[in-house]
Design brief:
The protein has 369 residues and is an alpha/beta fold. Helices cover 36% and strands 15% of the residues. It has a seven-stranded mixed sheet with strand order 1-9-8-5-4-2-3, with helices on both faces. A three-stranded antiparallel sheet has the order 7-6-13, with no helix packed on it. Strands 12-14-15 form a three-stranded antiparallel sheet. Helix 9 packs parallel to helix 12. 46% of the residues are buried. The structure holds pyridoxal-5'-phosphate. Pyridoxal-5'-phosphate (PLP) binds next to helix 4 and helix 5.
Amino acid sequence: MRVPFSFLKEQFADPESIFERIRVFLKRCDFTLGQELQEFEKQYAASVGARFAIGVGSGTDALALSLKALGIGPGDEVIVPAHTFIATVGAVVQVGARPVFVDAGRDHLIDASKIAAALTSQTRALLPVHWAGAPAAMPEICKLAEAHGLVVVEDACQALGARINGQHVGTFGAAGAFSVHPLKPLHVWGDGGMIVTNDAALDEKLRLIRNHGMQGRDVVALYGVNSRFDNLQAIVGLEVIKTLDATIDKRISHARRYDKAFAAKGFAGVIEVPPRQGSHKHVVHLYIVTASRRDELLQFLKGQGIDAKVHYPIPQHLQPAAEVWGHKVGDFPMAEHLARNTITLPCHQYLSEEQIDYTISKVAEFYGL
Ligand SMILES: *Cc1c(COP(=O)(O)O)cnc(C)c1O
């Protein structure tokens, strides 16, 4: 049996409805900031219960432009988790600010109890990440931000649809950044990003920034960039968004199957499922656990046709690019532990229960269970 990680060939096996929309679009040719993008932005905002959604060139730009619009730049510090994808950190560097790392907790998310100790007189923003589709501790993080006069930008690139007590991630802070990269929960045929906000002034500023700061054709209100969500990709997004709820439900159901199996006695001490909170809806962008003898397990599973992966083997503070900040091994022990021990098992919407069970049985076989 094969258990692939990617689902894109199945997702787009029948692209006729998309092609049909493209044919209509080609009669109008409003290639940039066109009708489809406006419709997609509307549906995207509605899907997370935000007032506004602004389409930009990538999830990374969604983060960077949010920071820029909130006035964060050179001389400022932004709190980020040490355990994340490079883009979280890169976006902070892109606006000229300094990323300040905070360790992860056992739930693989930024440890909110360690943020206060990382604050300095230069700290301007908190940038939590909803890692793997699990919500970070937003109530605590927002309380801290309020107490210290900081802004919150959420990296929700992996977490469209995730909620805390029914409230969508991306709507707790001043702005929430999402990605439509092909492997994210709602994806298109290339790059793109979405910023959601409830703040009308911020919405207006972001619309200017993504389009050279131009007010109409001739007047430049402020210096911006060219980072527009592609109208052609919005057509794909409008089709894929219809399947979002079903996709999330299927992934959650597979994740529960894994969780239940790994809760059995035999797996104690070899597989650790991160703690789940009842009030949190985890959309399972990635199904990640920690595993003893991780690298051997990874190779074994690959040999059995199971496309397991590692997200990611090097924590952000130990990346060569981060050398300028002088971190060393031991600075963020949980992030380092996770980098050494996490494994991602296939968990997408086109897998069958048989494929999940096969994966579980091969993990058990590896540990001699
Ligand atoms: C994918 C991702 C991003 C960046 O999104 P792009 O669209 O690839 O630029 C940022 N943060 C996290 C956590 C991501 O997973």
